[in-house]
Amino acid sequence: MKIAILPGDGIGPEVTREAVAVLECLALPGLTLFEGDVGGIAYKRHGHPLPDETLDMARAADAILFGAVGDPTCDALERHLRPEQAILGLRKHLGLFANLRPARVFAGLEHLSPLRADIAASLDMLIVRELTGDVYFGAKGRRVSETGEHEGWDSMSYCDSEVRRIAHVAFRAAAAGGHLLTSVDKANVLETSQLWRDVVIEVAADYPAVELDHMYVDNAAMQVVSHPDRFGVVLTGNLFGDILSDLASAAVGSIGLLPSASLGERETAFGTFGLYEPIHGSAPDIAGQGKANPMATILSAAMMLRHSFGRDAEAGRIENAVSAALADGVLGGDLGGSHGTAAIGEAVRARL
Ligand code: NAD
Ligand code: IPM
Ligand code: MN
């Protein structure tokens, strides 16, 4: 069971270290870890945010644990050399089109949410975000118009096969769980979204037990914080899913709590090949201070055990250890507490 560890920039290495320590604490036989450079650190060491050797290591692994990339000192680089290209490149090269971002308020932890406790208690959603298409990967550029205006442009598009395969992922999740699926789009304005909606309706015919609902993204953003009980599985595109998942994390309590799994179609001897990462970034404002909450990355490691290694029991143990630590008041600065990164990691391991 080979895991590529890609810590990246900023708080990436700090939070990844704690998640790796959690995996080591479980002492699973046959686990081998390899570490590679990605992001700004890779650019500085190798001249590229996603060096060939890192991509090769990722391809050879059964799963990837990813920290975060992003470095303000790289913001003036040409776009293809910026740290963020590392995660976009991994997703695209490895065919990881399905991003699962579960957001839920654990029972007894409603007080961590800024929402009223009775509203927070009902927050339990799985955001299924398409990850390798949309305006992220369309043509883009700069041009000077006839009137001499400087213009930046990005093209948004989806083709039906891209929508169909992510829709199946979401419908399967809804069929296995609460049977409620909300597809979020902007079909009242965008043609990309109208095609999205048409294809989702077509796919729905295969899942008669799932209740399908469509919602415009602006309304969805509002409902996530006012009526989270209206959501079970949320199916959406790359850009809307990015924004809605940060919003959902804030409704849970902190972006430092939300894990993710990015999956494709490749199966290994142990499970589905995937990349696992917290939904947050490199947090340059707190990097190097030992303040970052590693729980999102620790929970991402749990998702890895479940999806890539069929180790549901160990995944559950990690999740229980995290919620027990939170219930015992082990809170990072992001949750109004004073526990640092290492102390949180230690507290989770003590409860495993
Ligand atoms: P961010 O998620 O890095 O930080 C947003 C805010 O949340 C900051 O105030 C930060 O301190 C806080 N925060 C984030 N994670 C935290 C944690 N684990 N514990 C405590 N507080 C936490 O978003 P940003 O500031 O917009 O972006 C910073 C850099 O990260 C940018 O370069 C961006 O492109 C990159 N980024 C990368 C990824 C990724 O690697 N997948 C994801 C998001 C952003
Ligand atoms: C995320 C991040 C990335 C995204 C960036 C860093 C490219 O925000 O993983 O949520 O937009 O997908
Ligand atoms: Mn994001």
Automatic annotation (TrEMBL):
GO terms for cellular component: cytosol. It comes from the Bacteria. The keyword Magnesium applies. NAD(+) binds at G281, S282, A283, P284, D285, I286, A287, G288, Q289, G290, K291, A292, N293. Its cofactor is Mn(2+); Mg(2+). It catalyses: (2R,3S)-3-isopropylmalate + NAD(+) = 4-methyl-2-oxopentanoate + CO2 + NADH. Keywords: Amino-acid biosynthesis, Branched-chain amino acid biosynthesis, Cytoplasm, Leucine biosynthesis, Magnesium, Manganese, Metal-binding, NAD, Oxidoreductase. The keyword Membrane does not apply. It is found in: Cytoplasm. Residues 2-348 form the Isopropylmalate dehydrogenase-like domain. GO terms for molecular function: 3-isopropylmalate dehydrogenase activity; magnesium ion binding; NAD binding. GO terms for biological process: L-leucine biosynthetic process. It holds the Pfam family Iso_dh. Substrate binds at R91, R101, R129, D218. Pathway: Amino-acid biosynthesis; L-leucine biosynthesis; L-leucine from 3-methyl-2-oxobutanoate: step 3/4. The record marks Y136, K186 as: Important for catalysis. Its EC number is 1.1.1.85. Binds 1 Mg(2+) or Mn(2+) ion per subunit. Mg(2+) binds at D218, D242, D246. Coiled coil: none annotated. InterPro entries: IsoCit/isopropylmalate_DH_CS, IsoPropMal-DH-like_dom, Isopropylmalate_DH. PANTHER family: 3-ISOPROPYLMALATE DEHYDROGENASE (PTHR42979). Homodimer. Catalyzes the oxidation of 3-carboxy-2-hydroxy-4-methylpentanoate (3-isopropylmalate) to 3-carboxy-4-methyl-2-oxopentanoate. The product decarboxylates to 4-methyl-2 oxopentanoate. This is 3-isopropylmalate dehydrogenase. It comes from Erythrobacter sanguineus.
